Amino acid sequence: MKINIIGRKINVRESFKETVEKKLAKLDKYFKDDASAYVTMSMEKNAERLEVTVTSGALLFRAEESADTFVNALDTAVDTIERQIRKNKTRLEKRLREGAFREIGEQPEEFEETFNIREKTFVMKPMTPEEAILQMNLIGHEFFMFENSETGNAAVVYKRKNGGYGLINPEK
To answer: What pTM was computed for the model?
Structure first.
Protein backbone atom coordinates (compact mmCIF):
# COMPACT_ATOMS: atom_id res chain seq x y z
CA MET A 1 0.00 0.00 0.00
CA LYS A 2 1.31 3.43 -0.94
CA ILE A 3 1.08 5.81 2.03
CA ASN A 4 1.02 9.62 1.89
CA ILE A 5 1.23 11.53 5.18
CA ILE A 6 0.21 15.18 5.26
CA GLY A 7 0.71 17.49 8.24
CA ARG A 8 -1.51 20.57 8.31
CA LYS A 9 0.50 23.33 10.02
CA ILE A 10 2.58 20.70 11.83
CA ASN A 11 5.75 18.76 11.11
CA VAL A 12 5.44 14.98 10.88
CA ARG A 13 8.21 13.11 12.73
CA GLU A 14 9.94 10.13 11.09
CA SER A 15 9.04 7.96 14.08
CA PHE A 16 5.34 8.68 13.50
CA LYS A 17 5.68 7.91 9.78
CA GLU A 18 7.07 4.48 10.74
CA THR A 19 4.18 3.98 13.18
CA VAL A 20 1.65 4.85 10.44
CA GLU A 21 3.26 2.37 8.04
CA LYS A 22 3.22 -0.35 10.70
CA LYS A 23 -0.43 0.25 11.68
CA LEU A 24 -1.71 0.51 8.09
CA ALA A 25 0.13 -2.70 7.17
CA LYS A 26 -2.67 -4.39 9.15
CA LEU A 27 -5.02 -3.46 6.28
CA ASP A 28 -2.77 -4.81 3.49
CA LYS A 29 -4.40 -8.24 3.71
CA TYR A 30 -7.65 -6.75 2.38
CA PHE A 31 -6.35 -4.79 -0.60
CA LYS A 32 -4.65 -5.47 -3.90
CA ASP A 33 -1.35 -3.77 -4.73
CA ASP A 34 -3.07 -0.68 -6.21
CA ALA A 35 -4.23 0.56 -2.80
CA SER A 36 -3.11 3.93 -1.46
CA ALA A 37 -3.65 5.62 1.88
CA TYR A 38 -3.71 9.32 2.73
CA VAL A 39 -3.17 10.29 6.36
CA THR A 40 -3.85 13.93 7.24
CA MET A 41 -2.83 15.26 10.64
CA SER A 42 -3.94 18.53 12.23
CA MET A 43 -4.34 20.13 15.64
CA GLU A 44 -7.71 21.07 17.12
CA LYS A 45 -8.35 23.07 20.27
CA ASN A 46 -7.76 20.31 22.83
CA ALA A 47 -7.08 17.29 20.63
CA GLU A 48 -5.02 15.93 17.81
CA ARG A 49 -7.06 15.13 14.68
CA LEU A 50 -6.26 12.46 12.12
CA GLU A 51 -8.02 11.53 8.89
CA VAL A 52 -7.26 8.27 7.09
CA THR A 53 -8.52 7.67 3.56
CA VAL A 54 -7.78 4.36 1.83
CA THR A 55 -8.55 3.95 -1.88
CA SER A 56 -8.35 0.81 -3.95
CA GLY A 57 -9.80 1.00 -7.44
CA ALA A 58 -13.28 2.50 -7.06
CA LEU A 59 -13.49 1.68 -3.33
CA LEU A 60 -12.94 4.40 -0.75
CA PHE A 61 -12.75 3.96 3.02
CA ARG A 62 -12.46 6.94 5.34
CA ALA A 63 -12.12 7.49 9.07
CA GLU A 64 -11.76 10.78 10.93
CA GLU A 65 -10.73 10.65 14.58
CA SER A 66 -9.69 13.04 17.34
CA ALA A 67 -7.77 11.94 20.42
CA ASP A 68 -5.23 13.12 22.97
CA THR A 69 -2.39 11.78 20.78
CA PHE A 70 -2.00 11.07 17.08
CA VAL A 71 -1.14 7.44 17.84
CA ASN A 72 -4.43 6.92 19.69
CA ALA A 73 -6.33 8.61 16.85
CA LEU A 74 -4.51 6.40 14.34
CA ASP A 75 -5.40 3.23 16.27
CA THR A 76 -9.07 4.21 16.36
CA ALA A 77 -9.09 5.19 12.66
CA VAL A 78 -7.52 1.88 11.56
CA ASP A 79 -10.04 -0.03 13.70
CA THR A 80 -12.87 2.02 12.15
CA ILE A 81 -11.75 1.21 8.59
CA GLU A 82 -11.32 -2.47 9.43
CA ARG A 83 -14.83 -2.47 10.96
CA GLN A 84 -16.22 -0.87 7.76
CA ILE A 85 -14.58 -3.61 5.70
CA ARG A 86 -15.83 -6.44 7.94
CA LYS A 87 -19.34 -4.99 8.13
CA ASN A 88 -19.60 -4.96 4.34
CA LYS A 89 -17.54 -8.08 3.67
CA THR A 90 -20.17 -9.93 1.65
CA ARG A 91 -20.52 -6.99 -0.71
CA LEU A 92 -16.79 -6.30 -0.87
CA GLU A 93 -15.38 -9.81 -1.25
CA LYS A 94 -15.46 -9.67 -5.04
CA ARG A 95 -13.59 -6.35 -5.12
CA LEU A 96 -10.99 -6.88 -2.42
CA ARG A 97 -8.01 -9.22 -2.43
CA GLU A 98 -8.92 -12.86 -3.12
CA GLY A 99 -9.25 -14.78 0.16
CA ALA A 100 -8.77 -11.71 2.39
CA PHE A 101 -11.44 -12.84 4.82
CA ARG A 102 -10.52 -16.52 4.83
CA GLU A 103 -7.05 -15.61 6.12
CA ILE A 104 -8.59 -14.52 9.41
CA GLY A 105 -10.62 -17.69 9.81
CA GLU A 106 -13.94 -16.51 8.46
CA GLN A 107 -15.94 -18.38 5.87
CA PRO A 108 -17.75 -16.43 3.13
CA GLU A 109 -21.48 -16.26 3.62
CA GLU A 110 -23.61 -18.26 1.21
CA PHE A 111 -26.08 -15.49 0.43
CA GLU A 112 -25.74 -12.03 -0.99
CA GLU A 113 -26.99 -9.21 1.23
CA THR A 114 -29.88 -7.22 -0.23
CA PHE A 115 -30.54 -3.52 0.17
CA ASN A 116 -33.88 -1.85 0.71
CA ILE A 117 -33.54 1.11 -1.65
CA ARG A 118 -36.04 3.93 -1.69
CA GLU A 119 -36.03 5.64 -5.07
CA LYS A 120 -36.85 9.29 -5.52
CA THR A 121 -36.95 11.37 -8.70
CA PHE A 122 -37.13 15.12 -9.00
CA VAL A 123 -36.48 17.89 -11.48
CA MET A 124 -33.01 19.41 -11.03
CA LYS A 125 -33.24 23.12 -11.56
CA PRO A 126 -30.07 25.07 -12.35
CA MET A 127 -28.82 26.99 -9.29
CA THR A 128 -25.62 28.14 -7.65
CA PRO A 129 -24.08 26.17 -4.77
CA GLU A 130 -25.20 28.92 -2.36
CA GLU A 131 -28.82 28.58 -3.56
CA ALA A 132 -28.55 24.79 -3.20
CA ILE A 133 -27.35 25.16 0.41
CA LEU A 134 -30.29 27.45 1.15
CA GLN A 135 -32.70 24.93 -0.42
CA MET A 136 -31.09 22.04 1.54
CA ASN A 137 -31.50 23.96 4.81
CA LEU A 138 -35.10 24.83 3.98
CA ILE A 139 -36.07 21.18 3.53
CA GLY A 140 -33.96 20.05 6.51
CA HIS A 141 -31.73 17.54 4.68
CA GLU A 142 -28.06 16.73 5.20
CA PHE A 143 -27.31 16.87 1.46
CA PHE A 144 -28.89 18.20 -1.72
CA MET A 145 -28.36 17.28 -5.38
CA PHE A 146 -28.74 20.02 -7.99
CA GLU A 147 -27.63 21.21 -11.43
CA ASN A 148 -24.79 23.64 -10.95
CA SER A 149 -25.64 26.70 -13.05
CA GLU A 150 -21.94 27.63 -13.15
CA THR A 151 -20.81 24.33 -14.72
CA GLY A 152 -23.99 22.75 -16.12
CA ASN A 153 -23.17 19.46 -14.29
CA ALA A 154 -24.98 17.64 -11.53
CA ALA A 155 -23.47 18.42 -8.11
CA VAL A 156 -24.14 17.77 -4.43
CA VAL A 157 -23.86 20.08 -1.43
CA TYR A 158 -23.73 18.60 2.06
CA LYS A 159 -23.34 19.55 5.72
CA ARG A 160 -19.95 18.77 7.25
CA LYS A 161 -19.45 17.57 10.82
CA ASN A 162 -17.54 20.75 11.67
CA GLY A 163 -20.59 22.89 10.82
CA GLY A 164 -19.42 23.97 7.37
CA TYR A 165 -20.62 22.85 3.96
CA GLY A 166 -19.11 20.76 1.20
CA LEU A 167 -19.59 20.69 -2.57
CA ILE A 168 -19.11 17.54 -4.67
CA ASN A 169 -18.54 18.01 -8.39
CA PRO A 170 -18.10 15.18 -10.92
CA GLU A 171 -14.72 14.74 -12.56
CA LYS A 172 -14.84 14.41 -16.33
So the answer is: 0.61
